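Morning - zinc ion inputs below, output right after.
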Amino acid sequence: MEISLSLLSADQGNLRGEVEKVKDVIDSLHFDIMDGHFVPEIGLGMGVVEALRSHFSFPFYVHLMVEEPEKYIDRFAEAGADVIYIHIESTPHISRVLERIKDKGLKGGVALNPATPIIFLEQIWELMDVLLLLTVNPGYGGQKLLPFTIGKIKKAKNTIMEKGLPIKIAVDGGINLATVKEVCEAGASIIVVGSYVFESENPLKAIKSLRGKMER
Ligand code: DX5
Ligand code: ZN
């Protein structure tokens, strides 16, 4: 079980300081890259990934919420990403993009919006290392988890087990003390969390209580 910290709701003027506060209790960092087209907002870029890379050694997961993601794989790989998540809705060439990510020596992640069904993965299960299931519509931190996504997590977990593949399921959006148990029980093993941590008075304590609920 892994906690991946999303920087979307962190103090953007002090990202390094925000991560320093909790670095001993998280397992990885999650970068939400937004282009103003695939999602309405604009946020982060390869410069931030590169700037933080020299200060932290845990894995960097880059969540590309951009159109034409194929244009940016090499740049994020060079900036220090370990895993790149590509939205299946953002490119007609998902298998080619995943191949490119692997060629660069990184792990390939596929992201699905809440309303995109698991069946869309039918031909590409073997090509991915991590599946990122959005539990809110992407683009903003602090939204409520959409209850209909729980069944999708279960469905994905069952398929992965049936196929005997080593794919991890990550969940992203609306994770807090009230929702974390349910997503873990449904099959998630990477928990992306943002506003719950950054809006709490004591981020360290918040993460520890979250982890307490994650143990199965
Ligand atoms: C949603 C992003 C998430 C988000 C998580 O577009 O992909 O990573 O920031 O934030 P919370 O935990 O606030 O839902
Ligand atoms: Zn994200």
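Note: The helical segments are 15-22, 46-53, 73-79, 94-103, 149-163, 180-186, 195-198, 203-214.

O.
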